[in-house]
Amino acid sequence: MYYIEKLMKQGLVELKMGDIMGTDVISVYIKDTVKEAAAKLKDSPAYVEGAPVLDDDSQVVGIILKTDLDENSTKTVSDILLADAPTSSPDDEITEAACAMLKSKDYVIPVVDENKMLLGLVTRTDVFQTLEYQRTQKAQKVN
């Protein structure tokens, strides 16, 4: 939240995905086993509920969710990935991400460049904490 507060104090009213994305992202490859993916995500923070899936060219091709990971599975990530999961550009408004997250079970949205290369990740927690912060700041200005 420190960075969000800093950006808000600088007068940014409409934050973009690039403003709130995390850049220390755990990602998995499409050819990884589910067991390997589970091991990678095991130590990630609780609020990170999934990870971007990358192809051999390191382009984002979908996401996986922690809830879909079975450490005893013999499947590959390609068997369980959500290929139609939304991605975002750094210039997209966070309200768009909030709408996308409410319409699906996608709790993470990879932020990508024009070549589908991973730039960062925005979680459901990031989006809703930011929206709540904006709401409370507006309420304080009114009072």
Write up what this structure looks like.
By secondary structure, the chain is α+β, with helices and mostly antiparallel strands. The chain has a single domain (2-142), classed as CBS-domain. Helices cover 38% and strands 17% of the residues. The chain has six helices and five strands; from the N terminus they run H-H-E-H-E-E-H-H-E-E-H. The strands form two sheets. It has a three-stranded mixed sheet with strand order 1-2-3. Strand 2 and strand 3 (60-65) form a beta hairpin. Helix 5 crosses helix 6. The longest helix has 19 residues, at 124-142. The two termini are 23 Å apart. 26% of the residues are buried. The model has no long low-confidence stretch (mean pLDDT 84).
Which helices and strands appear, and what pairs or packs with what?
Blueprint: H1 2-9, H2 17-20, E1 28-29, H3 34-42, E2 50-54, E3 60-65, H4 77-80, H5 94-103, E4 108-112, E5 118-123, H6 124-142
Parallel strand pairs: 1-2
Antiparallel strand pairs: 2-3, 4-5
Helix pairs in contact: 5-6
